[in-house]
Design a protein that fits this description.
Layout (H helix, E strand, L loop, with lengths): L2 H13 L2 E10 L2 E10 L3 E7 L7 H12 L2 E8 L6 H12 L4 E5 L2 H4 L5
Parallel strand pairs: 3-4, 4-5
Antiparallel strand pairs: 1-2, 2-3
Length: 116
């Protein structure tokens, strides 16, 4: 399963949020937008798999929080059942930045009726 699958499945079920919300922002060189993985009335949640590509999850959550004024949260989906180097790095950085992090087993999706 890919990250988009878990966002669609878990955003509403666990956070009462809406997936893939877009927000515009300006910067000194112009204007752009960001897409937030999951957003509810008080939080912006950035999802990532336990892979190298998720190393930017914390930055994305912090920037989304800055744009929206909401609390940042990082959710990592544990696909292999162990605390690997990428989960460790992201969790340590999130703790330093005082950003809540949740590591959720991929098998949780089966419990939500999305198993195949």
């Amino acid at each position: 399963m890919n990250e988009a699958y878990y966002i669609a499945l878990l955003c509403g079920a666990l956070f009462g949020g809406i997936p893939e919300q877009v927000h515009d922002f300006t910067y000194p060189g112009g204007a752009a937008s960001i897409r937030i993985d999951c957003e509810n009335k008080s939080r912006v949640v950035e999802f990532g798999l336990d892979k190298r590509s998720s190393l930017d999850s914390l930055q994305q959550a912090l920037f989304a929080a800055e744009i929206t004024g909401k609390e940042p949260v990082v959710v990592l989906i544990d696909t292999d059942g162990r605390m690997g180097r990428f989960e460790w790095r992201i969790a340590r950085a999130a703790n330093v930045a005082d950003v809540p992090i949740r590591i959720i087993p991929a098998e949780l999706a089966d419990g939500l009726g999305a198993g195949g």
